[in-house]
Amino acid sequence: MADRTVDDTGQGGLRATGIVKRYAGVPALAGVDLTVRPGEVVGLVGHNGAGKSTLLKCLSGAVRPDEGTIEVDGVPLALTGPAAALAAGISTVYQELSLLPNLTVTQNVFLGDEIRRFGQLSRDRMRRAARELVERFDVQVDVDRRLGDYPVATRQLLEIAIATQRGSRFLLLDEPTTSLEGEQVVRLLDTVGELARTTGIGVLLVDHKLDELYQVADTVVALVDGRVRIAGSARTVDRADVVRAIAGEEAAVHLLQEGRADEGTPTDPAGAPGHVPAPSAASDRPDGTVALQVDHLATAALRDVSLSARPGRVLGLYGLIGSGRTELLRALVGLDTVQGGTVRLDGREFRPRNPAQAARAGLVYLTEERKTDGIVPGLDSATNVVLPILHRFSRLGLLDKRALGRTATEYMDLLHVRGNRAAPVVSLSGGNQQKVLLARALAQRPRVLLLDEPTKGVDIGVKSEIHRLLKDLAHRQGMTVVVVSSEEEEILDVADDVVTFSSGRCDGRTRPAAELSVVDLRQAAWDAA
Ligand SMILES: Nc1ncnc2c1ncn2[C@@H]1O[C@H](COP(=O)(O)OP(=O)(O)OP(=O)(O)O)[C@@H](O)[C@H]1O
Q1: Phi and psi dihedrals of 187, rounded to 5?
Q2: Based on the domain organization, do 300 and 442 belong to the same domain?
Q3: Residue ranges of region Disordered (predicted)?
Q4: Atom of ligand 1 nearest to the CA of 420
Q5: At 266, is the pLDDT very low, low, confident or very high (cuts 50, 70, 90)?
Q6: How, if at all, do strands 41-46 and 314-318 pair?
């Protein structure tokens, strides 16, 4: 953490006062005060639906608050739209990246900005300037190559770099590390900290992971139900208080007992309520029952993948991004074409054709990309949950809406979906949309549940609940659960066994998660690479 003192009396910086934003009369923000000073990193946390994104949208001009003022250096701003915020020096980098993959790095750097900065297009000057920018931020790219050739982590760094060169004085970052892994996270956070220190840019960083937040933030602000519950120097604000504010007193006890509040991924405290026992002898069947058996599977992205997953256990798939984990799940439900090898379900050969066919066979996949692959935005949450199983509620051509509603409610309660469930699902906060998708996957009562980054964007309290739930489904109900996660802590917390992927290969060698550390996992991924 940077050692800077903050001038509490000065008017400098980006200051929001008394911000209120209501949706259909319900306050998402109920009077928020927040200041980001030059050179300061403010870390913003809160439970799913607390109002973090709404606050960012108010500051970036995307949403107009119902009440309150926003000012820079004491001068009130009329944020009539994103352009007005940009003109006032406020840049925002959202989770969904806005750069264009089909253009080159240079073209992206100067997107929409060519004429203003250069009077006329000068390719050489633009390339030189783009090169200087990427070097300054140590982004390893060739400025003449298509941006789409580079991984998400690189694009994320580039997006931040670009935001800073548009005369930005304030940078708003919405969960910038969600799609990154290990080293990339460290690098991004380092870059953000250094940027604030060396250029005096003020940063507002939204992040669910407290260890990341405390690494870089000078000031920590916790939002609860649209109000600031905690605000203060990261040196003095107690993490335990932040965990309690976000997760609630009861859940916080488990998180804190385990000393894992940083990641929000506790292992099960023995004897605690909701405790899930270790896999029983019944689930560890001597006959070696295998629910899912994959042998030498090949697709456009996979070269040779073999593994087996057993009922009553959670199998973690670990590897670097692009190593083949997601691609395996896609192939198993027919989203990618299988070119070679076999898949067996309960001993019988299964040829994946499409997700609906896979689901009928008992294989349900929760995608990582809820925006593109998962949610039906215009429908309410309940309908989103029961969409794949509507046929179960149909009798003589009539839909039993009450039974349907009961089932949807049951699964949404199980996952603590917060927000207006009768409204279109897109009006729920990001974390709550993720919970709706997980509820939908569970409502299908799969025998084999395939999950890609199941807790992406969910808050620390809910994350630990989801982990407990998945272990419960496997250990008590005999489900076969397969989890892909880029977070080592998540894999170690939720999985019983781990297999490692590298360059589209997996040799199927399982290792008990209990015997592994974060370092072991990273080492295994590198060794396999
Ligand atoms: N366009 C909208 N229409 C209706 N309600 C909305 C809309 N946008 C947000 N909300 C509601 O405002 C509240 C705050 O949502 P917001 O997205 O700001 O939360 P968040 O803290 O960013 O959550 P998360 O951690 O899940 O991303 C939620 O109850 C959400 O359902």
Answers
A1: -65, -45
A2: yes
A3: 261-287
A4: 31
A5: very low
A6: unpaired
Kindly state whether residues 137 and 65 are assigned to the same domain.
Answer: yes
Q: How far is the CA of 432 from the centre of ligand 1 (A)?
A: 9
Indicate which residue's Cα is closest to atom 4 of ligand 1.
427
262, part of any domain:
no
Q: Give dist(CA 275, CA 264) in Å, integer.
A: 16
From the CA of 132, how far away is ligand 1's center (Å)? 38
Which residue, chain included where needed, has tokens 């996270």? 185
CA of 439 to the centre of ligand 1 (A): 19
Residues 77, 161, single domain; the answer is yes
Which of 428, 432, 459, 462 to mutate to test ligand 1, by most ligand atoms within 8 A of the CB atom? 428
pTM: 0.80
Q: For the complex shown, is ipTM > 0.90? A: yes
Instruction: Please tell me which of 30-44, 256-270, 309-323, 436-450 the model is most confident about, judged by mean pLDDT.
Output: 30-44
Amino acid at 408: A
Say whether both 326 and 188 belong to one domain.
Answer: no
At 268 the pLDDT is 32
The protein residue whose alpha carbon is closest to atom 5 in ligand 1 is: 427
Q: How far apart are CA 133 and CA 184, in angstroms?
A: 19
471-510 pLDDT, tens digit per residue, is 999 999 899 999 999 888 899 999 999 999 988 999 989 9
Residue 412: give the domain boundaries: 292-528
Q: From CA 301, how far away is CA 331, in angstroms rounded?
A: 10
User: 47, 53, 210, 438: which to mutate for ligand 1, most atoms within 8 A of CB?
Assistant: 53
Using alpha carbons, list the distances in angstroms from residue 281 to 275, 284, 287, 348, 439: 17, 5, 11, 25, 28
Number of H helices, E strands in the chain: 18, 23
- Distance from the CA of 1 to the center of ligand 1, in angstroms? 30
Residues 216 and 96 in one domain: yes
Clarify whether residues 299 and 243 are in a common domain: no
Amino acid at 21: K
Residue 119 has what pLDDT? 56
Q: Work out the average pLDDT over 419-435.
A: 87
Which residues approach ligand 1 with their CB closer than 6 A?
Answer: 23, 28, 46, 48-54, 419, 427-432, 457, 459
Tell me if 78 is assigned to some domain. Answer: yes
Residue nearest to atom 3 of ligand 1 (CA): 427
**Beta-ladder partners of 497:** 315, 512
In the predicted model, is pLDDT for residue 180 greater than 80?
A: no
Q: How many CA atoms lie within 13 A of 112 on its CB side?
A: 8
Instruction: Please tell me what DSSP assigns to residue 81.
Output: S
- What pLDDT is attached to residue 4? 41
What CATH number did the domain enclosing 130 receive?
3.40.50.300
Q: Ligand 1, closest atom to CA 431?
A: 26
> How many domains does one find in the chain?
2
pLDDT at 273 over 50: no
Answer whether residue 308 is part of any domain. Answer: yes
pLDDT at 129 over 90: no
- Above pLDDT 90, what percent of the chain? 47
- Does the residue 200 lie in any domain? yes
